[in-house]
Design a protein that fits this description.
Layout lengths: L5 H15 L4 E2 L11 E6 H7 L15 E6 L9 H8 E2 L9 H4 L34 E4 L13 E4 L16 H32 L5 E7 L4 H13 L7 E5 L2 H9 L3 E2 L3 H4 L13 H19 L3 E5 L3 E3 L4 H4 L11 E5 L12 E8 L3 H12 L1 H7 L2 H16 L3 E4 L9 H6 L1 H8 L7 E3 L6 H11 L13 H6 L55
Parallel strand pairs: 7-8, 7-10, 8-9, 12-14
Antiparallel strand pairs: 1-4, 2-3, 5-6, 10-13, 11-15, 12-13
Length: about 525
C-alpha cells in the first residue's frame, strides 16, 4: 500500500496553516463524542480488497468511489499529527481522503456496514451509542392498510425484507409448514444411522485424494438435464469420477448408474418426494425437491467431506474442482464459496449467493450451519426458496461464528450463469466464440426445463438424443437399436450412454438469446427482443 504523496502532505500543511489562522471547531459536537471523534475516507476498491468479507461489491465509481471511516474514540485516530488534526477538526475542507493503511493503523476493531437503498427511498442512516448490536434496525413510514411507503405515516419498526411496495419477503413459517417439515425431519433422525452406514463407503469410493466429492440430486422430471450433463462432459473428456448422485426415484437411479455415475438412492428420506419436473421456479414440486438439496449436502459434509454441490442444469468446460484446490484457489481463507446469482434483490441480501453451485469445506462451522438449515426446513417451505433460506441462515452464522462465505462475483469469468446469459451479451459472445474459457455454465434464471433445453441447444451444448428425452431406463433400453449417431466416447457396458450424441444438437429457437450461430429468422422470446447477433 502506498503512503501519502509529497503533494498530499504539502496540501495538508496548507490547510493546517489556514485553519490555525482562523477559528476552528471539532468536526463532531460533544453530544456524539462517545462514538464519533473523527472521520476520514478511503478508496472503496482498496478497502474492499483489503477487507474481503465475501460479499459481492461492485467497483467504486462517481458517488460510490469512497468508504467513510468513523473513529469511535480519540485513540483510534491515526497517529500522524497532521492527519489527526485534519480528521477531527472542521477546517472548511472536505472529509480527508487517506491511504488505507494510515487510516486504519490504530483501529483495534473495525465494524463494517454495507448500506444500499433498495427502492430508491428517501432513506436516512442513524447511529446511536448503546449496547453493541450487529444487526440493523429498520424503520419505515408504512401505510397502515397497504404497508406501502407513505411519507405522511409514522416511522414504524419493520422487517428488513419489506419493500417500498409493501411486499414482505420474510414471513414466519405457518404451523402447517412446520408440521410438514417435522414429518420429514422425524424420518431423517430415525433413519440417520442406517443411512450414514450405507452412504459412508460410497462417499469414500468417489472422494478425491483431497477429500472432495461432487454432489448432485435429481428426480425423473429433470433426468434429461442429468443425461446432458454427463454426455456433455464425456464429449469434452472431463473426469466425472468424483460425482455422487442422490436420485429421488428408482428411474433416475437406474439412468444414472447406466451413465457411469455413482448413485445412492435414499428411499427412506426421498421416497415421498415428487418424480415430476417443476414447471416453474418456486412451484410445489420445486419446493419439495429443495429438501433433497439440503439433505444430500448436509449428510456428505457431516461425514467429513468437502462438498462441491451443483444443480443438473450445468455444463462443464473444465472440471470446477480444480478451482477450489488449495494451490489454485485465489481465496483460500474462506469456508464456503458460491456462484453469484446476479439478482441483487432484498431477499438475497447481502450475499446474492446461488445455491445451485457452491463449494463447502468440512469443518465444525460448516457442519453447524448445514445442520441449522436442515432443522429450519419449514422456512424453505414457507418462502418457496432454498436459496433465500440458505442465505438468511448463513448470514447469521457469518456474524455469530465467523463463517467465512465468499461469493464469486458476477463480473468474474469463471462461473457464469443466467445473469450473464440474459444480461451480458458481449461476454456470452466470447464464450461462444471460445475467446473465454470459464469452468462451467449454469442455466439459472430460466423459467422451466423446456427453456433450459432450448437455450442449451442454441448454445451448442446439448448432447442428448431426442428419443431419450423424458424416457425411463426401460423405455430407452427397449428402443436402443433405433438410436443413431452415438458418441464415440460411450462405454457399451453402460447402455444409456448411447443416448449421447457425437456432435451437439444445435437448434435455433429465439433470435434474442445467445446462440452458437445467428438465429435471426427465429422469433424473440422477450417482448421487443433484438437479435443476439
Amino acid at each position: 500500500m502506498n503512503n501519502r504523496t509529497e503533494k498530499d502532505k504539502k496540501e495538508h500543511k496548507k490547510i493546517l496553516l489556514r485553519s490555525s489562522n482562523s477559528l476552528t471547531t471539532s468536526r463532531f459536537p460533544a453530544g456524539v463524542s462517545k462514538f464519533a471523534t473523527g472521520i476520514s475516507r478511503v478508496k472503496k476498491d482498496e478497502f474492499a480488497k483489503a477487507f474481503d468479507y465475501g460479499i459481492p461489491i461492485d467497483k467504486g465509481s462517481g458517488g460510490d468511489s469512497d468508504v467513510l471511516i468513523l473513529y469511535n474514540t480519540a485513540s483510534s485516530i491515526p497517529s500522524d499529527k497532521e492527519i489527526h488534526h485534519y480528521v477531527t477538526t472542521e477546517t472548511g475542507e472536505s472529509i480527508p481522503s487517506l491511504d488505507l493503511k494510515e487510516a486504519t493503523e490504530n483501529c483495534e476493531a473495525l465494524n463494517v456496514i454495507n448500506t444500499g437503498n433498495p427502492g430508491n427511498l428517501k432513506q436516512c442512516l442513524a447511529i446511536i451509542q448503546g449496547y453493541e448490536s450487529y444487526h440493523v434496525q429498520r424503520w419505515m413510514r408504512q401505510d397502515p392498510k397497504t404497508s406501502k411507503v407513505n411519507l405522511n405515516a409514522d416511522l414504524v419498526p419493520t422487517s428488513r425484507g419489506v419493500t417500498d411496495k409493501g411486499l414482505y419477503n420474510f414471513v414466519a413459517p405457518s404451523d402447517s409448514d412446520t408440521k410438514q417439515h417435522f414429518k420429514m425431519l422425524k424420518t431423517y433422525l430415525e433413519t440417520l444411522d442406517d443411512v450414514t452406514s450405507e452412504l459412508e463407503p460410497i462417499l469414500k469410493s468417489v472422494a478425491s485424494k483431497e477429500n472432495n466429492v461432487i454432489i448432485m440430486t435429481c428426480n425423473f422430471g429433470q433426468s434429461e438435464l442429468l443425461i446432458n450433463f454427463m454426455c456433455n462432459a464425456k464429449n469434452k473428456n472431463l473426469d466425472t469420477s468424483n460425482i455422487l448422485l442422490f436420485p429421488t426415484d428408482e428411474d433416475t437411479h437406474k439412468l444414472a448408474e447406466s451413465l457411469g455415475l455413482k448413485s445412492y438412492l435414499d428411499k427412506r428420506n426421498f421416497d415421498a418426494l415428487p418424480s415430476g419436473e417443476a414447471r416453474r421456479y418456486g412451484d410445489p414440486n420445486f419446493v419439495r425437491m429443495m429438501y433433497a438439496k439440503v439433505v444430500c449436502v448436509q449428510l456428505s459434509n457431516m461425514l467429513g467431506y468437502n462438498v462441491l454441490f451443483q444443480d443438473v442444469d450445468i455444463v462443464w468446460y473444465r472440471n470446477p474442482l480444480e478451482f477450489f484446490l488449495e494451490q489454485n484457489n485465489p481465496y483460500p481463507d474462506f469456508d464456503m464459496y458460491f456462484q453469484e446469482d446476479g439478482a441483487r434483490s432484498v431477499r438475497y441480501a447481502p450475499l446474492s449467493a446461488n445455491s445451485g453451485f457452491y463449494y463447502v469445506k468440512s469443518s465444525n462451522k460448516t457442519r453447524h450451519m448445514l445442520k441449522s438449515l436442515l432443522f429450519e426446513g419449514d422456512v424453505i417451505i414457507q418462502c418457496h426458496s432454498h436459496q433465500q433460506a440458505f442465505i438468511q441462515i448463513m448470514n447469521e452464522h457469518a456474524s455469530l461464528y465467523n463463517l467465512r462465505v465468499k461469493v464469486l462475483q458476477r463480473d468474474a469469468e469463471e462461473f457464469p450463469g443466467g445473469y450473464h446469459y440474459h444480461r451480458r451479451k458481449n461476454f456470452m459472445k466470447e464464450i461462444l466464440q471460445k475467446k473465454t474459457l470459464p469452468y462451467l455454465f449454469h442455466m439459472s434464471w430460466t423459467a422451466n426445463k423446456d427453456n433450459k433445453i432450448k437455450y442449451f441447444q442454441q448454445m451448442g451444448e446439448w448432447f442428448v438424443h431426442d428419443q431419450c428425452i423424458g424416457q425411463t431406463y426401460e423405455n430407452i433400453i427397449n428402443n436402443i437399436s433405433e438410436l443413431t449417431n452415438p458418441s464415440a466416447y460411450i462405454d457399451k457396458s453402460m447402455p444409456i450412454q448411447q443416448c449421447c450424441l457425437a456432435e451437439p444438437n444445435v437448434i435455433c429457437h429465439y433470435k434474442d438469446k445467445p446462440s452458437l450461430h445467428p438465429c435471426k429468422e427465429s422469433p424473440p422470446i422477450d417482448k421487443h427482443g433484438r437479435s443476439f447477433w
